[in-house]
Amino acid sequence: MNIKKFNRIKENDEFNEEQPIEQKEQAVESGLVTPVSLTDDIVSIFNERIGDEYTAHYFYRNAANWCRNANYKKATAFFDGEANSELEHAQGLQDYLTQWNLIPSIPSVPSNQSFTSLIDIINKAYNLEYGLFMKYSKDQQSLFGVHPATFNFIQKYVDIQNDSVAEYSDLLNALQLVNIENKLDVLIFEDKYFG
């Protein structure tokens, strides 16, 4: 196959054609190039994180339902949004695997979660998000030098988790300012911080 190469041009110059260069095509016995795929170790990491993202989705879906039942309207909307975000994260991981010609394996995850209070939800959410932050950070470290594109891809998830940890940390810090045993204080907290 002949490919024509052009020199860079400056403003008001014309294209300057050079001699054609030869490009060798990859020879493959079957006539098709087999696309490169990710290693089994990387696929395993992604499938585990997909499970974690679905676990987080169900956690927040249950949190939203609990808040709706308790009449925490702003917290309900907040946790509805969190549940939807977790689905987007799971979808992003699956899309990455399919771009590398792999079919994601979606593991079974717990779908029920019980709560005793809004404070209980926030405590558990912080632990959930911090745990995911640590997992993604460890995954990214294991990919350094192994697969640069995947290392870079996981950085987005490390950043997302870092922001989530900070968000729930802020909520926990704000709870230090109220009497969590007083329902009115918790209602005022919910109105101020989930609005």
What labels describe this entry?
195 residues, two-stranded antiparallel sheet, 63% helix, mainly alpha, Ferritin
Average pLDDT taken over every residue: 88
The count of helical stretches stands at 5
Helix proportion range: 55-70%
Largest sheet: 2 strands, antiparallel
What overall form do the CA principal axes indicate? Answer: elongated
Quickly name the level 1 CATH class. Answer: Mainly Alpha
> Reading side by side through the largest sheet, how are the strands ordered?
1-2
Give the distance, in angstroms, between the N- and C-terminal Cα atoms: 62 Å
CATH fold description: Ferritin
Which CATH architecture? Up-down Bundle
- Are there runs of 5+ residues with pLDDT below 50, and where? 1-11, 15-27
The SSE order reads EEHHHHH
Radius of gyration: 25 Å
Secondary-structure-derived class: mainly alpha
- How many domain regions? 1
Name given to the CATH homologous superfamily: Ferritin, core subunit, four-helix bundle
Percent of sequence in beta strands: under 5%
Number of beta strands? 2
